[in-house]
Every structure is written in structure tokens, then in C-alpha cells.
Amino acid sequence: MMIRIEGVLDEEGVRRIREIIDAGPWVDGNETSGHQSRLAKRNEQLKQNCEEGAQAGRLVLDALGRTPEFIAAALPLKVFPPLFNRYQGGEEFGAHVDNSIRTLAGTEFRIRSDLSCTLFLEPPEAYEGGELVVEDLFGEHRVKLAAGDMVLYPASSVHRVTPVTRGARTACFFWLQSMVRSHEEREQLLRLDRSIRTLSAERGATDPVVIELTNLYHNLMRRWADA
Ligand code: NI
After folding, report:
1. pLDDT by residue (tens digit) across 126-136?
2. What global pTM score does this model have?
3. Ion ligand 1, residue ranges at CB < 5 A
């Protein structure tokens, strides 16, 4: 399941983060790559553990915390500290897979990557190419979103970023471990959550049917979630 979450950041939020990261130290994107990725990856990345990255990462995490649709879709248990990358002058990231387990160098922190997340930080009309292409059994899904919008996709999928032939593509990316490991179960919970919110807006939160469905939602969470 791929999900688009609009308006994680507003214009001011994007501008603030860009101001911080654009002034930061950018290095070869292979700083965080595994062996196979290294062969496919040509981009730049904001240096890990730099002050600018930490500051911008906190702003992203704050914004995610204020985005109910993100919480409902991802059901995050552990979120890897956000990273930032930039593609320009024909740079691309060929077909690859993300590591199943991500560790944070020098710490005990590690996650199983269930979902990969890309938060776009550049208006799509400002660059040519730079589409995120995610493969599944149906075929290819091409993603290029407005600045401030985010896509969540299964970390288990083969994916790539097409060459950026004009302008520059700047984005934030990270992985997360969900409380609900199964994509299928997580999707059912999201659909139920959306239905409850719609019904609640129509009938009010104290409507008996809304209460019963909310109870069902939480009981399914008890069955499927790790906390
Ligand atoms: Ni990747």
C-alpha cells in the first residue's frame, strides 16, 4: 500500500527547513549506503549527525506528530532520525532495496524498516525528472509530490529515483518501524479509522455506533500491534 499525505509541512515549514539544511554540510550520498546501494546511488546527502540535520529533523518529527493522517497510516513505533538528500546535474538512484534493519551508528538504536518515507521539499515544477518509482506486482508507481507532501511506501519494495536533468530535487527521507508489522492489517486499520472519523463528523463522537466501531478499532489494535 502506498499512501500520499498532503500538507505535512506548509509553505513556511518548508521554507524554514530549507533555510537550515541548504546552509549545512552536504556530502556524497553514499555515506549511509550498503554495498548494493553504493553501486546505484549518485546524489548528495546532508552530513549525518550535523547540527543542521538534527535541527531540521526535529522540525520534521514535530510536523509528523501534528499530522493525524500520518499517525493513522503508519502507526509508528520507532522512527529513524530523518535524513536529507539532493539530486542535481543528472544524479539518480538506480533500482535498489532498503536495508531491513537500520542501525544508528554509535548507538543502541535500531529499527526494522517497515515503511520508507519521502517528504518532498522542492516544488515539482522547479526540477525535471527526480521521480520516485516504486515497483510492485502491478507495475511501477511514479511519485513526484508538492513541497510539504509525503509518500509512505513498503520498505520491502524495489524502488529508484530517476535522473534529475534540470534544477535540483531536495527531499527528506527516513524509515520507520510500525506497531503493526503487516501491511495488510495496517491497511484495514487505516480504512476503519477513516470510516470512524467520517461517521463521527456526521453523528458526533458519542454516537453509539461510533463508540462501538472505535471499540472494534482498538480491539483489532490489541490483536495486531506491538507497543
Ligand atoms: Ni531506498
Report:
1. 999 999 999 99
2. 0.94
3. 98
